[in-house]
Structure formats: C-alpha cells, structure tokens
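Limitations
The structure tokens in this dataset are predictions for the assembled complex, not deposited experimental models. Users should treat interface geometry with appropriate caution, especially where small molecules or nucleic acid strands are included. An illustrative entry is reproduced here so readers can see what is and is not provided.
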Amino acid sequence: MPITQLKINGVRNLTNVELELSEGFNFFYGENGSGKTSLLEAISLLAHGRSFRTVNYRQLIQHEQPHMSVFAEVAQQSGIASKVGVLRPQRGQSTFKIDGSPVYSSASLASLLPLQVINSKSFDLLDGPRKVRRGMFDWLVFHVKHEFSVLWRDYTKAVKQRNSLLRRDKISGYELAPWDIELNRLGISIDALRQECLQPFLDKVDTLIPDINLPKEYRVDIEYQRGWTEGQTLSEALTESYAKDRKYGYTTCGAHKSELKVLINKQAAAEVLSRGQQKSLIAAFMFAELQIFQQLMNKPSVLLIDDLPAELDQQHIQCLANWLLDLDTQVFVTGIYAEDMDRLKNKMNNKPCKVFHVKHGEINECNP
Ligand SMILES: Nc1ncnc2c1ncn2[C@@H]1O[C@H](COP(=O)(O)OP(=O)(O)OP(=O)(O)O)[C@@H](O)[C@H]1O
Ligand SMILES: [Mg+2]
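Predicted assembly:
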C-alpha cells in the first residue's frame, strides 16, 4: 500500500487538496482543465523530484504563488509509514524530505516510490529519440539492480569529463586515455546489468502482446543494442571513434548510446501501428516492468495512467483492465467521463477502489 495520504498545495490549479487514497485503484474523472493531470504531476514531483511534462517545474507552481508543495504518507513493508515531502519555491532551492531529513538525490526518492507513468508523452517511446526507450528500460534496471544507480552516475560524470576534453582546442589521446579506461570499466558493467534484465523483460512482454490483438502477420521484435560495436571492448570502440568524437565534440559510442529498437516486421513500430495499438504496446512495456519489479523486489510501486480511455476502444480498455488486475501496484487512473471510470471500477472485481470527482481544482471522493 504505497501512498495512503496526499496533500497538494499550489500545483497548477490545485490550491489545497487533501486525499485519503485507496491502496488499490484510484479513479479520477472531470472535465477538461479540471486538474486531473495536475494531480498526477504532483505525484510525479514526489517520486522523481520533477514533472513528467515539463523540464521547467516552475510552470507547475500556481500562478501568483511563491511555492508549491506536495506531501505524502507512503506505507512501507515494515508497516511504518514514511513521510515524503517536497517544497519548490519560485526562486531558490527546492527541499525534499523523507521523514523530516533532507534528501539530495532523486535516486532516493525514486527508490522510495517506484513510479511508472502512461500519458500522452508515452508515445515518444515509439517515435521519440532512443534515450526515451533507454530511460524506459533503465527504469527496470535501476529498480531491480542496486549497483546500477552508482554505476550510471559515475558513468555519466565520466562522459561529461571526456566531452569537455573533446571540446578543447588541443588534446592528445594521452589525456583521454584515463577516461576511456573508466568508461570501459563502467560501460561494460552497465551493459551486463542491462543484459541480465533484458530476457525477463522480453519474455514478459511476449506474454502480454497477444492480448493486444494485433494483426496475425505482425511480428514484434525488440532489439537491444548496447551502444558500441559487438566484438569490441568499449575502449577499442572509443579509440576508433576518436576522430569522429573530436569533430562532434562529444562521445558518440558507449552505454549512453544504447538503444532498444521496437520493430514490427522489421519496420519501426511507430510507422506501422495505429495510435491505439501503440498505446497498448507501450502499456505492455510498463506492465511487464512492473510485474518483474513486483516479483523480484516484493516492494510497493505506483502506476499513473492519464486519460486511460483516450485512443482506446472497449476491447483495448478491457485488455488494460485485465493487466491492471494482475498487478499488485497502486494505480491512479484519470478520464473525462464518470461512466468510463465507473465501468473500469466495476471491472476491478473486489479489489479496493475509490472514485474521485475533479472539478475546478477541487477533488472529492464519490460515495465515500
Ligand atoms: N501555473 C498554473 N497555475 C494555475 N493554473 C494553471 C497553471 N498551469 C496550468 N493551469 C491550469 O490548470 C488547469 C488544470 O489543468 P490540467 O492539465 O490538470 O487539466 P486536466 O483535468 O488534466 O484537463 P484535460 O482533461 O484537458 O487533460 C487548467 O485550466 C490549466 O490551464
Ligand atoms: Mg489532462
């Protein structure tokens, strides 16, 4: 049971919201502009320290307000709830606290509240740059392989150092050598962790894809590319790419260039699939990750689905509902119409559910 209580102040049109949440499913309906996405943004702020929609979190602060804050009680396996809070001012430093102590790394927030989001931006997973797919897959690696977080932090620091050397007027291969050795060491470890997560992910996705009901002749392939040529060490690849890296001023190969290609009969999935099919496939990736996380970590997690019914017919809504039933995740679903949310609630058998009405920035539970 992750988030039991939520208090939101000054996030977009949510002035002062206090909610007692269901440990299972939380459905929110309301007209356009009522505050549904803002609610999910507030939860994302807590879990990631940032918004899922904009890099400029200040846009989330309510107009004319000096700051926004989100506070939650998060139930823990131990039975003792953690209190998580974020205060972001218009100017100056943000403060994140867990149980009253300041937190400085977004990794601590992310591991306290493992969170997946499906929203209109999720389409970037198929038609956006490779770093979006890498981020999606690394969510799983981060949450199930504890070494990953530090390796990735050190790796990205080393890439930055190497890039700043590459941009200098004069450098020699001699100056780059220590960074190449470091990138090789870290990059190989990162790739190994990703490889360990890959097969369970592919197997899980394979079990979900038939539910989407794609045309029979569609073969979905997910191809992992580690970011440098097979059969080479990363040091060898870096030495080989030296001239190119100098020309562009950044490191063009390595674990930060890995890719997870999603293909339908060898063509990019985004070019072949309809919007509804894309959304269902993207949801399959998220559900696969959450299921693996659940099996391996036995820890609570949170899934946000903004405007679940958008783009989906009844058959595909049913498909997502069935997947939701298989998860032991706390779920927040939004939609415009009460009937859609009620229908979803009725599909959830006897799992704990609450339905909320969102209107002009106020959120009230229906039939509490
Ligand atoms: N910084 C801000 N301060 C106050 N209100 C804002 C701010 N930024 C956006 N808004 C408004 O907050 C309201 C809620 O937006 P939100 O995106 O949460 O709506 P929604 O319920 O998700 O709507 P839709 O169904 O159209 O997706 C909108 O009217 C929006 O214009
Ligand atoms: Mg919205």
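Some entries come with short summary sentences. For this one: The mean pLDDT is 93.
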